[in-house]
Write a structure and sequence with these properties.
By secondary structure, the protein is α+β, with helices and mostly antiparallel strands. The protein is 17% helix and 29% strand. Strands 1-3-2 form a 3-stranded antiparallel beta sheet.
């Protein structure tokens, strides 16, 4: 009998400016920034979340975000864990 994998759930929360609902999926695209107006000042290329998504998916997990504009965001990802033969 084959068991379905168990998953660990990780959450990372920030108190930043938040992400509009219509942008939540596209933030994981390469070179995408929700607001590029301050990218020179703050740095960044828009690759970080795309790299995170690739790594998480290569390990069989999922990644997503929830956000409220003006209140911040929470980023979640899952990673499957072995059941240890039980």
């Amino acid at each position: 009998m084959q068991q379905s994998p168990s998953f660990l759930l990780f959450a990372v929360r920030d108190e930043g400016r938040g992400i509009p609902a219509d942008k939540l999926e596209s933030i994981f695209d390469r070179f995408h920034q929700v607001d590029a107006s301050d990218s020179r000042e703050k740095g960044g290329t828009g690759l970080g979340l795309a790299i995170c998504r690739s790594i998480v998916q290569q390990h069989g997990g999922e990644i997503w975000a929830e956000s409220t504009v003006g209140q911040g965001s929470t980023f979640y990802f899952t990673i499957p864990v072995e059941n240890g033969g039980t």
